[in-house]
Amino acid sequence: MRRYLILAFICTLSITLFGQNQLFYKAGGYSTLSDFHNNTPNYLDTFIVSKRTIGDIKAWGGNDYKVESLTGSTTKKVIKNQIWGIFNNDTLYLNGLYVTGLIGYSKVEIFGKYCFLKPAFPVSPKIQKNLGLNNPQSGYMFGAVGGAIQGAQMAVKRIPLIYRISDGRTVLLSKKSMLVLLGNYPELKNNFLKETKQESEDILLKYLKLLNEK
After folding, report:
1. Whole-structure pTM value
2. Range(s) of the domain holding residue 130
């Protein structure tokens, strides 16, 4: 079943070239992915994006970045709940509520038709299931979280995620998902299969970048 979900992620919709050129996009806050595709920010504010401290994340949970309005014209409530993403200094930050259901913003570390980011580990069992995090083979299975120490440890845990910019679908970065992505590129796939550390994040990101060049 998991295999079919990954195949659906890759195959059900045609891949477009959204996100290939970061310089194309206007700075500001976007309410939806569709607004981002259309390059029409809904909030033409000046946003301050800052990285949260480990202590703050352990205390309150959520993703790695907080966003504030320099002018105050965009309220904290809007930033928290109503903005899909912030494009700031040629970098896209996605609202964690729209990715793994947790507050704060996650930085898109690789920008292209297949984006890469490391959002906070989801608390919702439904989101965990959709991402395959409850599958022993994923290496991310956890029991019920209890106690302040265990909760703090979970708060700082991050997952490697591929975000398809054409439609917002997500899948874990893994050998399994990479092989599916490489299905239409036999030469790249053969090269990947020759790698000795196919589960390595560095190797997986190497091929994700190569896919973005296709």
Report:
1. 0.85
2. 2-173
